[in-house]
Amino acid sequence: MSEQWIYLNGQYVKKEDAKISVYDHGFLYGDGIFEGIRIYDGNIFRCREHLDRLYDSAKSIMLSIPLSLTQMEDALRETIRRNGLRDGYIRLIVSRGPGNLGLDPLRCPEAYVVIIVEQLAIYPEEAYRDGLRSVSVSPRRNLPDALNPKIKSLNYLNNILVKIQANLAGVGEAIMLNSQGYVAEGSSDNIFIIKRGVVFTPPCYIGALEGITRGAIIDLCAKLGIPLREEPFTLHDVYTADEVFFTGTAAEVIAVREVDGRIIGEGRAGPLTSRLLDEFRKIVTVEGVKVYQ
Ligand code: PMP
Fold first, then answer.
1. Quick check: 1 pLDDT over 70?
2. Interface predicted TM-score (ipTM)
3. Do residues 153 and 147 make contact, with C-beta atoms less than 8 angstroms apart?
4. Taking the model in full, what pTM does it have?
């Protein structure tokens, strides 16, 4: 990528010129929403699902997006085209826009819409075979009645506190519990466990984002006849699982080999996790919206 172009409120500007006000309430208060989306060989994977989640988040926080869903999809495709990318990562941000120093969103007449596309540095391929180490951490997932984790909000401090603990423990991803001690999700990934051939993932009401990759894995299990249950589970269930993996747009389907010092299964990616990763990589270039036609 020689020159990087950013979509900024209806204009395409060079990265160096992409500037916004310090009075933006996304900057001042984390008041806004975002999406992380992948492009695989010119295909925006599950584009409509990402946009539906964005518009649902916007509705929930009463943020009016100044583009229709179709206009947004066109803006995504055009930004990718202008950057000449076939594979990469899209960060789509809608913030409340500039207001005054008070927190009242009514003082912010115009939302900001920003689209950044970049190449993505993901985990090295060995990590998918060897699995990550993980730990459970002390910060609990935001309560759904305080800040619902289903809203993909710009306020990521809950997740950042978790990431800090993961860094201190020297692991790639951490496991967050909800306030009742049930497993919720990772700092930026959903979690799955496998026990005796059955795949389990926490229901989103536990306190988890309705991940697009999570949804893809649920669909794949149904297609392949692999039994899957969305039900609450605890760390004990994680420690004693045959396989554990995280899912996310950036991480895809990544195995976990150790949790809080307990070795999971054989201590590397298990057979079902590897199969689901293979199957996932088959659909990513197919399901979604084509950029170049
Ligand atoms: N949970 C959280 C908190 C996230 O930020 C993300 C996104 N990285 C996920 C789960 C995974 O969601 P998706 O598969 O849509 O990327």
1. no
2. 0.99
3. yes
4. 0.97
